[in-house]
Write a structure and sequence with these properties.
By secondary structure, the chain is of the alpha/beta class. It has ten helices and five strands; from the N terminus they run E-H-E-H-E-H-E-H-E-H-H-H-H-H-H. It starts with a strand and ends with a helix.
Length: about 210
């Protein structure tokens, strides 16, 4: 599984510790991690809205199988990500959140608070959160007696999103000036290079290239 780390400007000083912690746990379980930043305050200031466009494009194009994102509280990042097609994002604060989200909801993105509650032991909690991602295959259900119902509801949620959201290609090519500006910002700098290397959908890649030139 390829995991993308997508952070915003407000907590970019923690990007490296989050990346190294995620990388340590993911690689121990046979997965890879690609760090999309934000790397430092000299980058274009990425917000959770711009990140949501990037996250949806990564997931819909096959460039990533799972995304770890967040903001100060995690709330904005979660809301923005869930506004996009093909993204099922949960707010994760502690290891039990991580386990229950992956088992009950079988989502493909988690939003973490990278400012609120960040104090002593934050990196320890972060490592435990990431470890719970890989305990079992996602979507297994919890508790066991409710697994079938939870799996059905998770599938129905994805069905609802498929009919209530526009295709990512339509969003990327929107004529709305604000959306066009966010699309360009979402793929600014090194992000475009990383996306081009990992994208598995030539059509989406061509669309992104045409919009960010």
């Amino acid at each position: 599984m390829k995991i993308a780390l997508v952070m915003e400007w407000s907590t970019c000083e923690r990007n490296e510790i989050v990346y190294q912690t995620l990388k340590k746990v993911a690689e121990a379980n046979g997965h890879t991690v690609v760090n999309y930043g934000q790397f430092n305050m000299e980058d274009n200031r990425q917000t959770y809205n711009q990140n949501a466009i990037l996250i949806s494009t990564l997931l819909n194009s096959g460039a990533a199988d799972f995304v770890v994102t967040g903001c100060g509280t995690g709330e904005g990042a979660m809301l923005a990500a869930n506004s996009m097609p093909g993204v099922c994002c949960g707010l994760v604060v502690d290891p039990s959140d991580s386990y229950l989200f992956t088992q009950v909801n079988g989502g493909n993105c988690m939003a973490l608070p990278f400012a609120k509650g960040w104090g002593w032991g934050a990196e320890v909690n972060l490592e435990y959160v990431f470890e719970k991602l890989f305990v079992k295959e996602p979507g297994g259900g919890y508790p066991a007696h409710a697994a079938a119902s939870e799996q059905r509801n998770a599938k129905l949620l994805n069905t609802l999103k498929s009919v209530s959201h526009a295709d990512i290609r339509e969003i990327l090519t929107s004529e709305n000036a604000d959306v066009q500006e966010m699309v360009k910002a979402a793929f600014a700098g090194k992000r475009m290079e990383l996306f081009e290397a990992d994208c598995r959908d030539p059509e989406i890649l061509a669309v992104v290239k045409s919009m960010v030139q």
